[in-house]
Amino acid sequence: MSTPSSVSRIRTLALVGPGGAGKTTLAEALLQRAGMIGAAGSVDRGSTVSDFDPVERRMQHSLATSTMHLTHDDHLVHLLDTPGSADFLGQSLPALEAVETAAIVVDAVAGIEPMAVRMMDWAAGRQLDRMIIVNRIDMPGVDCAALLAALQTTFGRECLPLNLPAAGGREVVDCWFAPEAEPGHEADFSSVAAAHRALVEQVVEVDGEFVERYLNEGDVDARELHAPLEQALREGHLIPVVFTSARTGAGVAALLDVIVQLLPDPTEGNLPDFLKGEGADARPMHARVDPAQHVLAHVFKVAIDPYVGRLGVMRVHQGTITPGTQLYVGDGRKPFKVGHLLRLQGKEATEIRSAGPGEIVAVAKIDEIAFDAVLHDAAEDDHIHLKPLDFPVPVHGLALKPRRHGDEQRLAEVLARLAAEDPCLKIEQVSATRETVVFGLGELHLRVMLERLREVHHVEVETAPPRIAYRETLTAAAQAQHRHRKQTGGAGQFGEVHLQVEPLPRGAGFEFVDRVRGGAIPGVFIPAVEKGVRQAMEAGVIAGHPVVDVRVTVLDGRHHSVDSKEVAFVAAGRKAFVQAMREASPIVLEPIVDVEITAPEARIGDLTGDLASRRGEVRGTDTLAAGQARVRARVPLAELSGYQTRLSSLTRGEGRYTLALAHFDVVPAHVQAEMTRRFELKDED
Fold first, then answer.
1. How far is the C-alpha of 169 from the C-alpha of 136, rounded, in Å?
2. Which positions fall inside the Tr-type G domain (predicted)?
């Protein structure tokens, strides 16, 4: 394989967009056309370069970003194939950090799907060059003219075709370099001349000199427009549209030419936004696309194989990395030495001698490497990081416990590995419910996590919906006393406690006050009384949930010079608290969450009605772009069990939501009565 002589011969491209649009098949077609593979693999047969994970092959969907490369006309093209499901945005969004160009792949049959809109918006937010690849143009009944009009309505008039379908989608004709169609190769709609004119007019608008030439001469040779073309791409003033059929190969050769001739090299795209410093002191900075500078590289993907170990995949932004280079990870003080520098082709890795700006490479078996880390070779760069990605918040929870006793530590280690690979997979040890809860972006996200636990890491687990973290508190003051006496022959146990409970403001926590006078309870036993109170608070009094926002004051008590022991005052404090709590008008509190739902505007009425049926309070709606709207509401968390299924039903799969804890509030009286009844029955058992 030839090596490009300079940064100007490197291209980086991420294929993004909805599942089923053909991104993986398109990657295969590009690799095959460039001579990197002998024959294109098949998603159905599980033989593609990018979908090499056993779970991916069985499910016939990309579940993680795969890194590939090809060469064409002495250019090196780094190609990232990303998952199309919204459940795997933790994999697809980081791919935008590694490339100059985001290629949004649109299915000519399905049209503009929500994931295409989202990825277009995210790519624009990261200031990437954007292009649209319309795939499957050869399918029966496809109306490419109507789809192009819809793209321009949705994304703007800057969406202009670089080529057009011809011969019923069996081929494409160039509209950029060719001002007129060749005889016998007319486009299926519009005309090459009209498309060429629209492209040139759009590009010259960014350069006053070319505008004047165009007005005077009537046309400008497209070969002279490279600089203004790159400027138009950087500014989003042009979003080129190309047509292909990955299945038949129509337009694939033309797409390769577009990539190497028209898309930006690392010096021509917008430089990524690095920050130097922490918090409010952080200042923006840009890497210098210079192989002679000190190294700055960003880790956008981590994969942890049970046999190979940790693999860190990075984009080099500045400097040159070679085997033997000493690199620091973030603000770490101990460098590691690069042993093997790898270029990836799906699961295959080839060792290379060096990697400079624009290259995507990997290093293996470096335990310190983590997702989003910046690697550098200079101590003064220890506080440089990329502007954080705005990931969706994982809100779908699943409680896990190992099926086999003794696997608790093994489960914790494997979950930590999975979370290291996926920034949208969160692991929580919920002390209030004593559960290990995994949070993901959706049901499919969690199902794939369970598949990997079982198939890849050989850990069997039992699952359940996570329990709601209810709380108990009181609404009035009350007093109680309890005498603990136990005689078992020989020394006995004796302790008596008089205490008072009072409510505190919501969120105030717990206060313990000692007002015992005259040594009625010796000071050495006061901590035992508090321990007993805390035990009762943790276990709950009326419904089995932790007690919060209470002041407990120890007023009096009695002790025995021989029989009083710590255990006696623990028991007396616990039981006195329970008695006082039951007399203090106790209530159960439930978590209330702020919900933001984004969905098609036409579905908002259905959504607000459904939220009202869930004891929700709609707090506002906002109209967004592309026919979308946002609903803001406040809803009891208990009412959102299984909400993703309901939301998908109401919005035909186009709705998404995020949650954030707002506060705790009193459960309805009938709910508390049922919770208390179940708790009492459980105690009786």
1. 8
2. 8-267
Q: How far, in Å, CA of 16 to CA of 129, rounded? A: 13
Give me the pLDDT at residue 431, please.
Answer: 62
Helix (H) / strand (E) element for 185: namely none
Distance in Å from the first CA to the final CA of the chain: 73
Return the half-sphere exposure (C-beta side, CA atoms, 13 A cut-off) of residue 258.
28
Q: Say how far apart CA 590 and CA 8 lie, in whole Å.
A: 59
What does pTM read for this prediction?
Answer: 0.77
DSSP-based helix, strand, coil % in the chain, nearest 5: 30, 30, 40
Q: What is the DSSP string of 562-627?
A: TT--HHHHHHHHHHHHHHHHHTS-EEEEEEEEEEEEEEEGGGHHHHHHHHHHTT-EEEEEEE-STT
Q: In terms of DSSP H, where are the helices of 407-554?
A: 408-421, 443-455, 526-539
* DSSP-derived secondary structure letter, 96: G
In sequence order, what DSSP letters do the residues of 625-679 get, joined into one string? Answer: STTEEEEEEEEEGGGGTTHHHHHHHHHTT--EEEEEEEEEEEPPHHHHHHHHHHH
> For tokens 């299915």, what's the residue?
107
What does the pLDDT read at residue 432? 54
* Residue among 255, 313, 265 at smallest CA distance from 91: 313
> Can you spell out the DSSP letters for 352-380?
-S-B-TT-EEEEES-TT--TTPEEESSGG
Residues of the chain with pLDDT under 50: 1-5, 685
pLDDT of 524 reads: 92
Measured in whole angstroms, the distance separating CA 134 from the mean position of its chain's CA atoms is 26
Distances (CA, A) of 261 to 72, 230, 257, 314, 608: 10, 11, 6, 25, 50
- Closest of 323, 319, 377 to residue 353, by C-alpha: 323
- How many of the other CB atoms lie within 10 Å of CB of 198? 15
Q: What gap in Å lies between CA 415 and CA 420, rounded to an integer?
A: 9
Contacts of 242 (CB under 8 A, 6+ apart): 131, 132, 133, 134, 161, 162, 163, 172, 251, 254, 255, 258
Q: To 10 degrees, what angle do helices 566-582 and 526-539 make?
A: 50
Instruction: Output the pLDDT for position 2.
Output: 36
Letter for the amino acid at 314?
A: M
Q: Within 10 A of 264 (CB to CB), how many other CB atoms are there?
A: 21
For 82, residues 6+ apart whose C-beta sits below 8 A from its C-beta are: 14, 15, 16, 23, 62, 65, 91, 92, 95
Alpha helices in 97-242 (DSSP H): 114-125, 144-155, 192-204, 208-217, 226-234
Structure tokens at 489: 């022959």
d(C-alpha 62, C-alpha 57), whole Å: 8
Distance, in Å, from the CA atom of 62 to the CA atom of 213, rounded to the nearest integer, reads 48
> Tokens 């505008």 appear where?
211
Q: Are 533 and 570 in contact (CB under 8 A)?
A: no
Tokens linked to 611: 């939220």
